[in-house]
Amino acid sequence: MKNIRLLLFSLASFFVQDTFAQSKINRKALVERHTVVVNKIDTLASLSIGNGGFAFTTDVTGLQTFPDFYAKGISLGTQSVWGWHRYPNTENYKVEETLKEINSHGRKVPYAVQASNSERAKAANNFLRQNPHRLQLGNLGFELFKKDGSKVNPQDLTNIHQTLNAYTGEITSQFSVEGVPVKVITVAHQQKDLISVKVQSDLLKTGQLKYRLRFPYPTNQFTDEGNNWKNADKHQSSVVLASEKSFVFKHQLNDTEYFVKIESNQDSKVLQSEAHYFVLSPDTKESTLEFSVMFSEKISKESIPNFTNTLLSTKTAWKTFWSNGAAVDFAGSTDPRAKELERRIILSQYLTKIQCANNEPPQETGLTYNSWFGKPHLEMHWWHGVHFALWNRTDLLEKSMSWYKKVSPEARIIAERQGFEGVRWQKMTDPDGKEAPSSVGAYLLWQQPHFITFAELAYRKHQNKATLEKYKELVFKTAEFMASYAYFDPEKGRYILGKGVIPAQERFKPEDTFNPTYELAYWQWALSTAQIWRERSGLKRNEKWDDVLKKLSPLPVQDGVYLATENATDSYMNPVFLTDHPSVLGTFGMLPESKMLDKKIMQDTFDKIWKIWHWDDTWGWDFPMVAMTATRLNQPEKAIDALMMDIRTNTYLPNGHNFQDARLRLYLPGNGGLLAAVAMMCGGYDGCKTINPGIPKNGKWKVRWEGFKKMY
């Protein structure tokens, strides 16, 4: 009788979830129930608007009024995909000065590392890592004054109430100064690097509310929070065009120049209070002011969109975004974590859309503030971009894929320098694909197959010859490197990855490391997929690739579990190896089942890692990766537990950002990873016949979803 009841309960759960999966979701209601509300000054609750290639981050005033106060929180940045600066290379530093050779199978292979063998090498390393760096384009804030003429400080603001409506892309900010209310609406244009602002306050009539444009100087440091007011003599800024309602500012740094145009609906005057500091004073007896601010590489003499047009642009674009692609709704769930998970999902979609959907791979901190000098890390592009395809927004992933063709000559140089064929994709790089020296990044491998992943997802969406023609050359060049990198050991009769490799779990010495488990599996999947691409293109299978596939080393096993790498026989005994990314789980999670994999061994590996891993020393995308593995292992409870694990690096702030630590207060790979995992947990993967495979069947979850694409 008990078994019958369990069977009936399971069937009921199945049909309930299947019904929810098919019902139509009210997307506006879904998004707007997670409108962000800020009722106090919280430097980690800054709100951003943007269009994918440009982002503008505000404090509680709706502009960037207190940049120094917010600097160590979610900084008040203004960044664009085109905004880069480079100091002159007066010493003619070259990447060749950073090379270090590692002996791999009797051959010396050079890698661009953070060389320290001489002062010259150190200087070359620092210059090449620091240049180019992403610019903070400008600080746009209010100049607020009390009745006695003194400036308003953050603590002087009262009656704070700020909202971000992700469905419309509007930030509405309300606060009071000495009892006088101020209301500000801030929006971003969706085709231009432009924000528009509407201000309502009697402080405009008394001259107590003005606004300013201030140009910071690059920090030349790992971070750039947009508030370096030093070095005034090293850059130039000026007003180059002016009329009653329109002003154009030019900012010049070495060979880099760009322009900022401000247009208002009221006559204004500009006063330069100090170098790079411009105050705009509206000449008005009105209590309402509207103005637009556009950042551009070239000067614009034409009128720019006003507030009404910009508001229409953002509302239209965001409605289109939310109306298309996938959606998931947990309304009616009784698991207490469901509401928070749904909030994270909605805000992660918003943040990745405004910060990661452009024509270059994004940096980990997006377009808010610099980490690693603003440079993208290509191994992270999987976490930034794969979710777009799974959420049926493949066009947003494809925006950045053309960049790989642009930088492929640089990737070919790296491969040739190291004696390999094809292209070896960069790790830490820049808009032109130059390789930045890195004592870890130079040895990473797992970014290499990513392009094949992206191309395969694009093909799954379009399934046409045009997609094959567009991406096949780089798919094949990527595979050529992968096949040539694999070394055939005649004594062992198998191909080996390494030595000279650091796996995704960055805890191993490149001199000693070979055959990391996840990378072996990724090699097998990507080379197999590249062969399929040849067949789709009417070409014969590549014999060398088939030989590598046939003789690739097996996944290393010891004591019934998969090792991190074949040489790390102490993978689960050395405390150092129980930190960072548990990337061995990516073998069956990020990747599908293959003939290399033993699911029983993977299950035991998962159980061991779950029990003994030092979760306090992990990163934001580790939790989604674990959830994907749990989903494929048919452990939906563990999938939810992983996504909602109470660990600092799995914290999601009120604005939706994934907090890591004092250095990385936001971490977009965590947001993208969350979305990728949820897509698999609901929409499934190739060969999966379970409804909502990553959602517990305990009666506590009600799930409606639509539009997901299956994971491979």
TrEMBL record:
It comes from the Bacteria. Residues 1-21 form the signal peptide. Gene3D superfamilies: 1.50.10.10, putative glycoside hydrolase family protein from bacillus halodurans. InterPro entries: 6-hairpin_glycosidase_sf (IPR008928), 6hp_glycosidase-like_sf (IPR012341). The keyword Signal applies. Keywords: Signal. This is Glycoside hydrolase family 65.
